[in-house]
Design a protein that fits this description.
Distance between the termini: 23 Å
Number of domains: 1
Oligomer: single chain
Shape: elongated
Radius of gyration: 18 Å
Strand content: 35-45%
Largest sheet: 7 strands, antiparallel
Length: 207
C-alpha cells in the first residue's frame, strides 16, 4: 500500500494503543456488499490518523459510499472527552420526493445512532450534520432527471477498553451497517431491527 508510508496511522512512531486500534479494524466482519479499503488519512486533525473508504456495491452498481477516519491524540482532547475520535462522511442518492420529507434529517441521524446501539457500543460527544442537496439540469443537460443526494457527516468518541483501546472493529462494522442502511439494503440480522429502514431510493448509479 503506497499511501501507507505517508499515512500517520502507519508510522513506526505511533503509540501502541493506536497501532492496536488500527490492527483491530482488519478483524471486522463486514457485509459482502460493502467494499472497504484504506485511503490516505488527513494529516492535520490529530497527531495520528488512519482512514478507510467504502462503497456499497450491487453487481456493477454503486449504491452508497463513505469515508471513516480514526483519529488519536495520546494527550487527550477536551472536545472529544477521550484520546480517540471517529469521523465519517456517508453519501447516497435519493428520490426527490423522499429528500423533501421534513423528517428525513432526524431519520438519517437515527440510522447512525441506531447502528451503534444495535451492536451495544458506547460512545461520547456525538455530533454531526445531515444535508439534503438537489440538482436540476438546464440547457444542454435539460434531459437529465433531477437528482437528490443525502449526506451524513458525523463524529463520535468511542469508549476505550483494555489498554486504552476502543473496539474499533465493532465501530467499523456499525459504520458499514449505516452505509448499508443508507443504500437501502435489508437488515443483515436481528440486531438491525431497531434501525429505521430506508424507503425506496433512486436507482443505483453505474460505477
Amino acid at each position: 500500500m503506497d499511501d501507507a508510508k505517508e499515512d500517520a496511522g502507519h508510522t513506526n512512531t505511533a503509540p501502541p494503543p493506536f497501532r492496536a486500534a488500527v490492527d483491530a479494524l482488519r478483524t471486522a466482519r463486514l457485509r459482502p456488499q460493502v467494499e472497504v479499503e484504506p485511503t490516505r488519512a488527513p494529516q492535520r486533525l490529530a497527531p495520528f490518523a488512519h482512514a478507510l473508504e467504502a462503497t456499497v456495491v450491487d453487481g456493477e452498481q454503486d449504491l452508497a459510499d463513505g469515508r471513516l477516519v480514526l483519529l488519536h491524540d495520546p494527550a487527550g482532547h477536551d472536545a472529544w472527552r477521550g484520546t480517540f475520535r471517529l469521523v465519517t462522511l456517508v453519501r447516497a442518492e435519493l428520490e426527490p420526493e423522499m429528500a423533501a420529507d421534513p423528517l428525513l434529517p432526524e431519520v438519517c441521524w437515527s440510522w447512525l445512532t441506531g447502528a451503534l446501539q444495535a451492536r451495544g457500543l458506547t460512545y461520547d460527544e456525538p455530533s454531526g450534520t445531515v444535508t439534503r442537496a438537489s440538482s436540476h439540469y438546464f440547457g444542454g443537460l435539460a434531459e437529465r432527471p433531477s437528482a437528490s443526494q443525502i449526506e451524513i457527516r458525523a463524529s463520535w468518541t468511542p469508549r476505550e477498553g483494555l489498554g486504552g483501546v476502543p473496539d474499533t472493529a465493532a465501530h467499523l462494522a456499525s459504520w458499514c451497517d449505516l452505509l448499508a442502511q443508507v443504500a437501502g439494503l435489508p437488515p443483515a440480522g436481528p440486531g438491525d431491527a431497531s434501525v429505521v429502514t430506508l424507503p425506496q431510493r433512486r436507482g443505483p448509479q453505474s460505477r
